[in-house]
Amino acid sequence: MSAQGQDAPVGINEKAESLSSGSIDKVESSHVDIDPKFERRTMLWIDFRILPVLALVYSFNLIDRINLGAAYAAGMGTDLELKVGSRFSIVTCIYFIPYILLQIPGNIVLRRLGVRNWLTFLIFAWGIVQLGMGWVQNWEALLATRILLGIFEAPFFPAVLWIITSWYKRHEVQKRVASFHVIAVTMGGLSPLLAYGLSLLNGTHGIAGWRWIFIVEGAITIGLAVITYLFIPAFPDVNTFLTKEQTDLVIRRINEDRGDALPDEITFKKAVHHLKDWTLWLTVSCRYVGSYFGALLRAAPPYGPSIILTLVVAYFADKYKHRSSFIVVLCVGCLVGNSLVAWHPDNKIRYLGVFITNACNCASIPCVLSYAANNVVSQSKRAVQTALIVALGAFGGILAAVCFRSQDYPRYVPGLAATLASQGVVLALLAALTIRHMRLNKQMREGKRTEPLEGQEGFYYTL
């Protein structure tokens, strides 16, 4: 089954907003030749300018989100009386309420406030909150800081996804998302080591070790806010790090690919309109049910195979302009690995299952994100989609925490059975979407459909 992202180029002549180097003139028509060397140099510079800084900040977004468990183990549970009743569970889960609710509003204001201003404010604000968590004296104060952390962290990840996908052609996206994901998750995976090292400061200046975890990591995040202000990339039409010729090239490439390099206004009314598209919900639901694996795999050590598989899958998925078959194979891999973990009597084989599951799950995340990003047009719809996919992914994390219960140790069969079911749901949703996309693509090629797909002439769905 072969997918074709576009059979005909799309030419759009519009003017972008002004840059420091001047305004962008009308986009050149697609028949003008592009110097391949100039194009390669420009895209390589964009890769180095965008991906490392975003991955660095996102890694601490992950660290600041998940360090609560390390602090609990380092003595916070006793000092703040979190072991009483369900206090620790409440403190853990309360974060997700504002985190889920504020994804879409955060992306709506991103363009209006400006990427640098908005993201710098968010990072600085959650850094201050993280720092403040080191000084709380009771569990109620900790609960309040977790709510604030959810508020300020919520808009960050969907904004990052939106920014990354706005710079590249649809079939260049997965390699970039995979690279970003691998860098961020690898750095975030060092969180337990960092937290353990900081906990050894216990008693230094009369401060408990668990408090040092929040204080130091909060201070680092505040420092990253400065780096963000200086180096965070904006959208292509308002960037300040490319020359005018390079910016013209990027705008033209995107418009020839999908026609949405220049922004359309994002309003609450338009966001509601996009949310009525049932295919948007099906696509993001693939990410939601797949996130069941999160709770089990955060502590899994076999990251090496995961990195390799994630990058290899991304390379071939972009090369063949295809997503769904790769997602199917990775889902089957998760089913096999998960079954081994749940029911095989040999612990060595069960551990192999952890490797398989971790690698396939890690590789599937950029694949699903790219599949979703490839099949929408307009920046407003992309803003809603990236926010929705992150919000529903957070729901999966909550359900994982519920399904993987301490009383099910050491085999966690109920949780593992739930992950098996979730992969079945992914396959069903993917089949429905792919059949629908194939049918509409065929109708367009045969001239049986007059209305362009996604409202964009020359657009075809990626399968």
TrEMBL record:
Domain Major facilitator superfamily (MFS) profile, first and last residues per copy: 50-439
Superkingdom field: Eukaryota
Membrane-spanning intervals of the chain: 50-68, 88-110, 117-137, 143-165, 177-198, 210-232, 303-318, 325-343, 349-371, 383-404, 416-435
Major localization class: membrane
Compartments in which it is found: Membrane
Keywords annotated in UniProt: Membrane, Transmembrane, Transmembrane helix, Transport
Membrane-related topology note: Multi-pass membrane protein
Regions annotated as coiled coil: none
Protein name listed in UniProt: MFS general substrate transporter
Organism: Coprinellus micaceus (Glistening ink-cap mushroom)
Organism classification: Eukaryota, Fungi, Dikarya, Basidiomycota, Agaricomycotina
